[in-house]
Amino acid sequence: MVLAAVGDGVIQGAEGYVYAAYGLTWLILIAYTVSLFLRAGKQAQKSGGESR
Amino acid sequence: MKQYVVLSFGFLLLLVGHVWGLFWAPMESYMQNVGRIFYVHVPTAWLTMVTYLFAFGFAVASLWTGKQKWDAYLEGSIEVGIIFNILLTLQGAIWAKPTWGVWWTWDPRLTTNVIMMVSFLGVLLFRASLANTEKRAVMTSIGSIVSFVNVIVVYESVNWWKSLHQSQSTPKTVSETMHIPLRLAAFGMLFMVIGMIMIRGKMALQRLEEESRAPDLPSNDDKQPLEV
Fold first, then answer.
1. A27: phi > 0 → left, psi -120 to 50 → alpha, else beta; which?
2. Tens digit of each residue's pLDDT (9 = 90 or more) over B135-187
3. A13-26: string of b/e by CB count within 10 Å (b at 16+)?
């Protein structure tokens, strides 16, 4: 009688999801920081050359 | 300048926390390497709620004092909170797929998180539609205070309802080997949030000061016919 394969109760592999989570986090945080930097510069210029 | 120093320090701490969590921390017993998403997802969750807490504080200060600077920092903290909230939702979906087998489920924690995100986004969008600065400040503050109730609901959702999502991460529920990278990542994100709010709040304050200097323009907020 062939028994169905039973897993050992742990997740194996799937490291791609880990890299995706870390990569997405850094991408969004860096992109938002860059956008803040650029927008702050523009706003400072509009306000009359005050420093960021 | 100091806001960029704070932000950079935050990035550095976060980098150390993430390198530790990715390469040095031991694997989680059931999730193995997938458990390492813990070091991005949990700090993001904490800081999303902390940012909205800052928004709540700025909203109360704005209503209480009527000062523009609190309204400006309120705008900043709502925007930063929404960015972290979107990130949190996406991280959660990435973690859910290998652990629960689905990208999304209408679990209480997930559902209330989306409601929280949409409510703060609504406050920001409504704010953008108001031309009158005083009305804008008051309505944003009230909207933020009301929306903050969602933060409590999200936090307690895993206790109040039967949730697939695990319970809150505390020193009692998290293994000791995970504490240091988790705290490094969390403090890293805290400094980043503070730096981001400082930058974004200052931008909003400069814009508000510009608006105060500009002559009053007719608006349709009070639905009066415009005089030509």
1. alpha
2. 999 999 999 999 999 999 999 999 999 888 887 777 777 788 888 999 999 99
3. eeeebbebbbeebe
Q: Name the phi and psi angles at B226, rounded to 5.
A: -75, 140
Looking at chain B, how many residues does it have?
228
Backbone angles phi, psi at B32, to 5 degrees: 55, -130
State how far the Cα of B226 lies from the Cα of B146, in Å rounded to an integer. 33
- Residue B53's closest CA among B195, B123, B169, B149? B149
Q: Is B136 on the interface with A (CB under 8 A)?
A: no
Confidence of residue B90 (pLDDT cuts 50, 70, 90): very high
> Min CA distance, B24 vs chain A (Å)?
14
Distance CA(B54)–CA(B144), nearest Å, equals 10
Query: What pTM value is reported for the model?
Result: 0.89
In whole angstroms, give the CA distance from residue A13 to residue B209. 54
Which of B83, B87, B206 lies nearest to residue A43, judging by beta carbons? B206
Q: What tokens does B132 get?
A: 């009158």
Alpha-carbon gap: B183 to the closest alpha carbon of chain A (Å):
16
Residue type, B39: Y
Measure B224 CA to nearest chain A CA, in Å.
31
Contact A28 B87 (CB under 8 A): yes
DSSP bridge pairs for B28:
B32
Residues B163/B38, Cβ–Cβ less than 8 Å: no
Q: Is there a contact between B94 and A9 if contact means CB atoms under 8 Å apart?
A: no
Closest by Cβ to A25, choosing from B29, B91, B99: B91
